[in-house]
């Protein structure tokens, strides 16, 4: 290989489907972003921050006001006590994941990843010099097989990465499961990186249990959050990592050479957004719960089998149970071309041994968009179901 050769690389399935969707003029229920009107209070807060606050570098770990607002939000929403010196503000949860993985994983370490997995984890672990060991959730209820998780731990294991609520399948890890994972981490001296970005979008009242809330994980856990999800401003890219001060300092060391800091005016706006009254956050969530019910009811009436999901902006369809057996990736291609609806095959969230029977649909869309998508999907099923 010549020294200037570059790896071929891959483009994420979300980008691929969004691009194809735009090209074909399809309805995009693939990538997870809302197309509803954006909250006016948040736009006004950002405008005020641009005009009246600073547009220069904020402190490397984030504005003190934002870190205080994050701590207050978690106290209110989850009864979770975190201190400002445990919080590192980053450019989206993606950077929080990158900084945490670079801080915790050393060349030669093993990292346990749970499939289906968010696409950034594996390449980031490999960039840090780590080796991934994969454990899969068990469909269709997507439980975590603790025996297989324990069997995947070796003397080289350094870190487990969890995601709750889970993208793509929308399940929430029960407290007992998280406690069992915590005990494994304590017994084998491991770190736990818990991607909790969907914590603010649990739509059926199931309680969110943070890794930071468990005694067994004290001093071992990193919690990753995202204002993009909590406030539905995915393009603002404000996220954070929270961990005990010793770990937070290691994450800050990585963050200072990735982005160093994150857009100052948007940090002010997120601080205001998180501090909006509970009633605002409840009403905000309720809009998404209504959108979810609209899509699920429409699909169910059309004969699709939609799996239960507690959180995220996604639901998954069981293809075989919907009379559409076959490979999810091939079906997603047919759907976008023949029905004009973009969806994400769940197999894209696997690095090996993929489940191929599920499609992920994003419901964070306006009523008319959802209704048109349901009409098209219903017609496709009527013409193709076995
Ligand atoms: N983790 C998960 C599970 C996600 O779904 C996402 C966004 N889709 C992220 C991390 C990244 O969040 P952000 O946009 O704040 O970087």
In short:
This protein is an alpha/beta fold and 386 residues long.
Characterization of the model:
The chain contains 13 helices and 13 strands. A seven-stranded mixed β-sheet has the order 2-8-7-6-5-3-4, sandwiched between helices. Helix 3 packs parallel to helix 10, helix 4 runs parallel beside helix 5 and helix 4 packs across helix 9. The chain has two domains: 13-32 and 279-384, Aspartate Aminotransferase, domain 1; 40-276, Type I PLP-dependent aspartate aminotransferase-like (Major domain) (Aspartate Aminotransferase, domain 2). It has helices at residues 13-24, 40-52, 64-78, 92-104, 121-127, 146-151, 175-188, 227-230, 245-255, 264-274, 278-301, 328-339, 367-384; strands at 27-28, 87-90, 110-115, 131-136, 157-163, 191-195, 221-226, 239-243, 305-306, 314-318, 341-342, 344-345, 358-362. It has 386 residues and is an alpha/beta fold. The mean pLDDT is 96. Helix content is 41%, strand content 15%. 48% of the residues are buried. The radius of gyration is 21 Å and the shape is globular. It starts with 12 loop residues before the first helix and ends with a helix. 4'-deoxy-4'-aminopyridoxal-5'-phosphate binds at residues 32, 92-94, 118, 163, 167, 195, 197, 226, 228, 234, 237, 239.
